Amino acid sequence: MRTKLPAALTSVIAVLALLAPLAQGQDAPSVNELLADGHPVFGFFGAQRDGDGGAQAAAVGPADFVFYSLERGPFDIPGFAAFRDQMRDAAAEEGNAHPLSLRIPPIGNELQESGDRVRQALDADASIIIVPHVRTAEEAAAAVATVAPTGRDWPANADGDLSMWLVVEDREGVDNAQAIAGTPGVGAVFAGPGDLSRAYERDMDAVEDAIQKILAACQAAGVPCGITAGPEDIEMRLEQGFRVFVVLDQAALRVGARWRAMESARQQAARAMEQPRPIAAVYSVWIEDLTWMEVRDAQRDGRTTAIVSSGGMEPNGPYLTTGKHNVILRGSCEMLARALGDALCAPVLGFVPEGGIDPPTGHMLYPGTISLQPETFQAVVDDIASSLLATGFEHVVLIGDSGGNQRGMAAAAAAINARLGAVRAHFIPEWYEVQPMLDYVADDLGVEEPVDEGLHDDFAVTAMMVAVDPATVRYEERVAAGLASINGADITPAERTAKLGLKIHEFRVESAVAAIRRAIPATQ
After folding, report:
1. CATH number for region 7-268
2. Which of 330, 327, 402, 397 is nearest to 371 (CA)?
3. Can you tell me the mean pLDDT for 471-498?
4. Which class does domain 287-523 fall in?
5. What would the pLDDT profile of 410-431 be if each residue is shown by its tens digit?
6. pTM of the model as a whole
7. Which of 388, 292, 369, 332 is nearest to 512 (CA)?
8. Of residues 348, 352, 357, 403, the one with CA closest to residue 375
9. Percentage of the chain with pLDDT > 90?
10. Domain coordinates of the chain in residue numbers?
11. 360 pairs with which residues across the strands?
12. Which of 101, 200, 401, 481 sits 20 to 30 Å CA-CA off 326?
C-alpha cells in the first residue's frame, strides 16, 4: 500500500525535485516542457571562441540550454558540432550535456538559404533555432516554416522537441511586435537590448519602452518572452514577466534557479489551496491544533483575525510554575478568540525579556528563567505576526501578559503597519491594565488580600491558573502543607477558586474585546 505524503512535504519534494536536475543535469525537464508549464528557462552564452568551450559548457550547472551564435561570419556548422561533441564527451565523465540553441543569420529575403541553414542546424542536433532581426509577421511565418516540416516543433506539437525563437531588435520589429508574437508556431520572442539601443540611438528610455512593448505583445499572444540579463537585473525581469533568459554570468543562473524553485513551490501551494479536506474538520481556536486545511477553511469562514499572546518564563514564588503567564494565556486567549467570533490563537509566545543575561539581572537571577533581548523579542513578535498576515489573516492582535512584553509588542505592531502602509497589527495595552482587574477582584468578587507576602503572586493570578490547571499552582501540595492561601486569601476549595478564576478571565476578555473592536471596527 502506498502512503500519501502530506501536502507540505510534497511541496518541499517538488522544490527539491526541480532544483536537483538544475544542479546535476540529470532527468531535467526539457525547455519546452518547462515553458509549457509556465516556468522560466535559463541559457548561457557558450564560450565558442575557446578551444575548450564545450568542456566549459559541460561544467555549468543550473542551466537549461547553451546559446551558440553563427549570426555573423562563416556558417560554421562543423565548429558547432565540435563544440557539441566536446561538451558531450566532458559530460560523460562529469558535467551536463545541455541542449543547444543556435542563432542563425537573419532570414530577410534569403528564404531558401535560411531553410538550408536550419536543416544543417537540426542535423547537428540543435534543438532551438533563434532567428534575429525579425521585422514582420511574414518573416516570422517564414522562420516557423523552416521547422514545421519536421513535425517536432513546439508549440505546434505539444510533445515537440524543437522550437523556433525570434528576436525583435529593430524599430520595424517593435512596431510589428503583436503580429510577430501572434504568428502560429512561434516558441518564444526575444527583445534584443543591444541592437535596440543602436536602433534607438542609445536613448535608453526609448529602448526600455520598446522592450516593454515586446513583452506586452508576447503576453497578449501567450508566447514566452526572452531577454538577456545579469545577476543584478534578472530577478526584476522575472517579476516583469520574462520567461526566457540568456546570461553570461553563472551567478544570474543561480538567481534564476532559486526564483524558479520558489515559483514552483508557490504554484504547488496554490493548487493545494483548492483541494478539499479529505476528512471532517476538528474545531479549535488554537492554530497549532489545526491542520493547515482547517486553518484555511476557518479563514474562509470568516476567522481572519489572529491573536498573538506573549507570556514568559520567570520566578513566581514557591508555588506557581515559571510559566505562570503562559498558563493564564492558554485559558484566556481561547476565551478571547471565542468571544470575538472571528479569531484564532497563535501558540503562546513563552519567551520574553526577563532581564539581562550576561551578567544576569532582574528575573534572570533565578533558575528556570529564560530571557530574550528586547530587540530579539520584538523581531520574533514581528516575524510571527508578519507570518500570519502573509498566510491569509487580515488582522493580528498583540497582547502581552507581562510588563516586560508591552514595549516590544507595541514597537512590532508599529513597524509592521509602517512597512505595510496599512494598519493590520493591533497592540492592545488594555490587556495588561492590572489595577482594574484587582479592583474587580476586591469590589465585585469580594476577595480580600489583607497582607502582601511579596511572592510575585496574588489571588487573581492564582485563581486564573487554577481555572486552567490546579497543578500549576501546586494546589494539592499546598493543601497538604497547610499553605493553601495567598496574601491571606484562602484558595480552597479548588472548585470555588476555579469559578472565581473563570470570572476574572471573563473580566479581562470583556475589556479586551471592547478594545479590539475599537481598533478593528469590522469585528463588531
Report:
1. 3.20.20.60
2. 402
3. 97
4. alpha beta
5. 999 999 999 999 999 999 999 9
6. 0.78
7. 332
8. 352
9. 87
10. 7-268, 287-523
11. 357
12. 481
